[in-house]
Amino acid sequence: MAKCAICDKSVTHGNKLSITRSHISKRNTRTWKPNLRSVKIMENGETKRIYVCAKCLRNGKVKRA
């Protein structure tokens, strides 16, 4: 399962409604996946590859190697 190593953001589930929304009983399930990036980081003097979401990467929560 896809998950951010920093903030534990993962796949969420919900309903996709029809375009007209007139018949609210017509629903389809869908999933929203996080925007994950594979990043090399320095941890304890060695490089490590982890998956980080784009929001954590943009906010500077991870220092790249």
Rg estimate, integer Å? 17 Å
Instruction: Let me know the number of strands.
Output: 4
**Widest beta sheet: strand line-up:** 1-2
Oligomer: single chain
Category from helices, strands and their pairing: mainly beta
Taken in chain order, the helices and strands follow as EEEEH
Low-confidence stretches: none
Please give the domain count.
1
Keywords:
single chain, 65 residues, mainly beta, two-stranded antiparallel ribbon, 4 strands, rod-shaped
SSE layout and pairing:
Blueprint: E1 12-17, E2 27-32, E3 36-43, E4 46-53, H1 54-58
Antiparallel strand pairs: 1-2, 3-4
What does this structure look like?
The protein is 8% helix and 43% strand. The protein has 65 residues and is mostly beta strands. The chain has one domain (12-58). The strands form 2 sheets. Strands 1-2 form a two-stranded antiparallel sheet. It has a two-stranded antiparallel sheet with strand order 3-4. Strand 3 (36-43) and strand 4 form a beta hairpin. The radius of gyration is 17 Å and the shape is rod-shaped.
Task: Briefly say what this structure is.
With 65 residues, the protein is mainly beta. It has one helix at 54-58; strands spanning 12-17, 27-32, 36-43, 46-53.
